[in-house]
Sequence to fold (303 residues):
Amino acid sequence: MRIILSSPLTDQGLYLEALHKFCPYADIRLWNDVKESDWQAEYALVWKPENQLFLHQKELKAIFNLGAGIDALEKLPDLPGDIPLYKLRDAGMGQWMLEYVMYGLVHFGRHFDHYRHHQQRQSWHPEYTHSLQQRRIGILGLGPLGAFVGQQLSQLGYSVIGWSRSEKEGLSFEQLNGYEHLDGFLSRCHFLVNLLPAKEETYHLLNEQRLMRLPRGAVVISVGRGSVLDEHALLVQLQTRHLRGALLDVFEHEPLSKEHPFWKQDNIVITPHMAAPTQHEEAVRQILGDILDIELGSGHNLI
Ligand code: GLV
Fold:
């Protein structure tokens, strides 16, 4: 089996290690090492690859995106449309995402931001809060990660509601589907978790009018893609205190520029797109399982 790998340098060694561990007989090469040669791979494992890779590699049976979001890949002009494209579904990222979301729930829900403030003033100041289990957590986007986070929170006893364009099977929490139910969904979310991908139809889906639908005092946790949120509209809602706070891991333009007003907004917590880092071994296990399916003739495009 011939595999080409194109990933950031920081991940490359870990992917190679996992590939050699689980697939010791495969011929695995790095894009940088073969781009000047005629060597052709059967499978490409890529994260934000150069467009040139697809002009060069003409024998690919499948392309594996080394992440959950395929937006960067889809922008490449020469991404072949006729080769199955797979993305990481959970591959160990769900648990990380869950922990990140729970941090946001607790940080704002239990007023840890206020206590930080009190501490700076040496002030002993207990505050009344609602129990988090009395609050409703809305999961916007029920792909593998959204479904996992929703299921886990619901099993822990939290009140969860989900929204996606079409109905997802096998979920144990309430879901609303379709744009006609989006405003109704938003009006019920004390915490809104954005787990939507970047697509034409999700661009600025959370605009001013939709953010206004959230109940007063709601919190936004954004971990899908930044382009889903109209950042200016969010800032206004946070400044007017219609929204209580926001925990943001993804932004319309990354890295977030030093001049961006989000940095100085007191009720925003910023993290640098680290909510659910790719788990290299789990990712490689999932990919090798998919390759096995393809080789056995039962492969299908899982996107
Ligand atoms: C990270 O953002 C991913 O898409 O996996």
Remarks:
- The longest helix spans residues 93-109.
